Automatic annotation (TrEMBL):
Phylogenetic classification of the source organism: Bacteria, Pseudomonadati, Pseudomonadota, Alphaproteobacteria, Rhodobacterales
Family: Belongs to the DapA family.
Alphabetized SUPFAM superfamilies for the sequence: Aldolase
InterPro entries to which the protein is assigned, alphabetical: Aldolase_TIM (IPR013785), DapA-like (IPR002220)
GO terms under cellular component: cytosol
CDD domains according to UniProt: DHDPS-like (cd00408)
Signal peptide interval: none
Entry protein name: Dihydrodipicolinate synthase family protein
GO molecular function, one term: 4-hydroxy-tetrahydrodipicolinate synthase activity
UniProt keyword list: Lyase
Organism of origin: Psychromarinibacter sediminicola
SMART domains: DHDPS
Length: 305
């Protein structure tokens, strides 16, 4: 990449057959559907890809399939998070060797009580940065329960060669983004939004330049970012208001299941199966999801038909 990534960089869901096996052909169709929606990059093996229910062998297979199938059509961001620094290093090196444009990492944690301190976090990212030559995006998400203070993030951006992108999805994300941009200046290559764009308008006001949502409807969320960055805030706001009911329902009621359900409804994938202990959404929640999706005439609802 010669220019910082901006726009929309959705997380690809991992499709499973109804019996729980990874659907390799479905993965290829997911990637094609996302590219047809005009995305600026695709992220794989993230939390919304159900990375926490995949075996190491499945991760390797999905990474290889995804990078080979996308074949440079858009940049691919590979999530390589792990509590072990050594494993995180090896995952990052493998991603780079297969053609990843960037990696995404959460800080090292394992449950509520096993977390690295600030020195350990810095060393974790330092060791990965030293092992590869592609950019690293730091994911600051509530799931980890790890506090990532702005001074620590700025220090990593200034001192670690490959750290320059930050997905901020903690509470009060906009204020943290603004503080990060102010303190980090030119070292903050990508101040990004997350949380399925539920805070996107405020985050754009704070200076974010991209959003990493689910893959459910990037063709409708991308214009919010592009209009805003082009200076047309009224158009961005109008598009935001149009998308907000579906954004809210996905974020607050459905979670990672939403994208898979829409993709299955539209024939992109054959099943919206989620692996146990995740459970299917209720018929009530699903009905509202599909009603809101149809109101926006989502590409994914007709892509495979």
């Amino acid at each position: 990449m010669t220019q910082p990534l901006t726009g929309i960089l959705p997380v690809a869901p991992t499709p499973f057959h109804a019996d729980g096996r990874v659907d390799e052909d479905g993965m290829r169709r997911v990637l094609d559907c996302l590219i047809d929606q005009g995305v600026d990059a695709i992220c794989i093996l993230a939390n919304y890809s159900e990375q926490f229910v995949l075996s190491d062998a499945e991760r390797e297979t999905l990474m290889r399939i995804s990078l080979e199938h996308v074949a440079g059509r858009v940049p691919v961001i590979v999530t390589t998070s792990h509590y072990s620094t050594g494993i995180a290093v090896e995952r990052a090196k493998a991603a780079e060797s297969l053609g990843a444009a960037m990696i995404m990492m959460m800080p090292p944690y394992h449950g509520a009580g096993l977390k690295a301190d600030e020195t350990g976090i810095y060393e974790h990212f330092r060791d990965v940065s030293d092992a590869i030559s592609i950019p690293i995006m730091v994911q600051d998400a509530p799931l980890s329960g790890v506090n990532l203070p702005v001074p620590l993030l700025v220090r990593m951006a200034k001192e670690l060669e490959n750290v320059g992108y930050f997905k901020i999805e903690c509470p009060f994300a906009a204020d943290k983004l603004a503080a990060l941009i102010e303190a980090g200046g030119e070292h903050i290559l990508g101040p990004w939004d997350g949380e399925e764009a539920v805070t996107l308008l405020a985050d754009l006001d704070a200076g974010c330049t991209a959003t990493m949502t689910s893959g459910m409807f990037p063709e409708h969320i991308r214009p919010i970012v592009t209009h805003y960055l082009a200076g047309d805030k009224d158009a961005a706001y109008d598009q935001w208001r149009k998308c907000l009911p579906l954004i809210n329902h996905e974020n607050r009621q459905c979670g990672l299941r939403a994208c898979k359900t829409v993709y299955a409804e539209g024939g992109v994938i054959g099943s919206d199966h989620v692996r146990h202990p995740q459970k299917p959404m209720s018929p009530r929640t699903k009905a509202r999801l599909l009603e809101l999706a149809r109101e926006l005439d989502l590409t994914a609802l007709r892509w495979g038909k």
